[in-house]
Give the backbone structure.
Amino acid sequence: MAHSVVAASPVARLLSGTVVVLYSLISIAPLVWIFLTGFKNSTDAVAYPPRILSPPSIEGYCDLFTIQTSQDADYIAHLPPSTGPCDSLAREHGRVIAGKSKTPGRFFNSILIGFGSTFLSVFLGTLAAYAFSRFKVPAKDDLLFFILSTRFMPPIAVAIPIYLMYRQLGLIDTAVGMILLYTAVNVSLAVWLLKGFIDEIPREYEEAALVDGYTRLQAFVKTVLPQAATGIAATAVFCLIFAWNEYAFAVLLTSGTAQTMPPFIPFIIGEGGQDWPAVAAATSLFVVPILCFTILLRKQLLRGITFGAVRK
Amino acid sequence: MALPHASMSAAKIPDMIEVSSAAAARPGQSIRSGGISDRGIAWLFITPTILLLLAINIFPLIWTVRMSLTNYKANMGWMKYRFVGIENYVDILTDPDIWDAMQTTARFVFWSISLEVLLGFGLALLINRKFRGHSFWTTVILLPMMLSPAVVGNFWTFLFQPQSGLFNYVVSFFTGIDPASFQMIGDVKLAPWSIVLVDVWMWTPYVMLICLAGLRSIPDYIYEAAEVDRASVWRRFWSVTLPMVMPFLMLAVLFRGIENFKMFDMVNLLTNGGPGSLTETVSITLKRAAFEKWQTGWSSALAIILFLTVFGAANIYIKVLNSVKRR
């Protein structure tokens, strides 16, 4: 026999590689298309046949960040010189920039709610995971089961009473309300993931610290936390991505002040429907951080999507 | 860090709550030099999480059960509502529209998961042959599953535009069909498939990644033994690969099944249940009843039914999860 069963033959490897690369290219095409659309003008974006390469335009990004109003040619002709590329572009289309759009505020909300809820869920999750990992807790398995089962609650089903509860408490459309809600959803993932990471840290380190006269709390802070740093960082990224991407709660519980990007993007409207270059620009800006985090996180992804059960 | 007493203390440390008694029995050797007791710390560390989950998950759930027994309408809070017993539940379970939504959901779950398993498992088998650059391409394949389902649903409506959309153009390029002649989202025959297609695009990587972990967990010696027994390629697949990957595959199928059963965001933005109510999954029905028609009592009952179904499935999922974990 020329080759072992375990290692594939060179021909088989080449064929497999070709198929996988082909699939990757097809699956990445829609994303590439969205990035390209962000740099097209509104005519090229919906041209037929679709134009792969068209002269780059920042129209989409201008539309995304400004509010424009139509004016007649005479009015535009008598304006002072344009103040920037977006201004000139708007004038070419018979419009003037009337102010800044809501986009930066929505991005800010996404960042605030994302980081706020991530910090809280990782904080609570680390404490609980440490306790579950190291101490004898009564009904430990039941508690862990309970914690994970909350993750499976259908958001729309939970949203009805949450809506009524938040209405009573004045938490509708507030960042605090959304942070609490996302923390509750993420803490289950945080506990399970972090318990896996902390289980892997040998107990001997804490034991030595305890023998050296540290209290349990000091041993936790000085020996466990530093060694769990990678795990904590990975968990934080998973929580952040969830909160960043979440739509169901956001669309039902926020409308203005606390609205995040996912319910905002579909409602970027231009003349006659969605302003596709602007939507594509918003989508690109929204998606790029996730793509970067995914690449950073690729070694931990499997753990993250299986609640820490599958490690390799 | 030096571990002078490691061997000595290791035997009694593992369960710290028991240590206190062991330490007390040997004065002068106590390893707790002050601070809160371990039992105290355990509770201090776990309680906040449990309290948060009780407040944001369990309390609302109990409230939902209560509301499901009334004819309450949340947009008319001033009106007195009354208890109607299990009327809402009877109403839902005998409502043909609900069974339609259930069937729509079931078909969506069945087709999306079947295709994801076929494609995902296939890709995992290919990637497992470790060709050059396989880890780079694996990362590329994984990207779609990390995106926001809502944003994905939204930009696929752009790709599905009948005249100018990339999808229609590509289909017409390879088949010669006029790209303006079919609408993936608007057409009665095609709309259900548009959801399946986007879901498969997004979640095949998920199944692939878990299957790949399953394939990598199979030790080489089993294949070598099969080789000695002159087992054919098919035989090896059916009696070694598939059974060994099965628990992992179950994990992926159950999780995706649960997620797709309660699918809301992607469908809401892609078709919003349309055309008509053709692609209306249970979650969309629930949203319409709860937040458009404001039938709070009725939709609470539907929420409880949905929750019980998901909870039952999640129970099985967590059991499989724990069994995979122990391997």
Chain A has 16 helices and four strands. The domain at 104-305 of chain A is CATH 1.10.3720.10 (MetI-like fold). The mean pLDDT of chain A is 91.
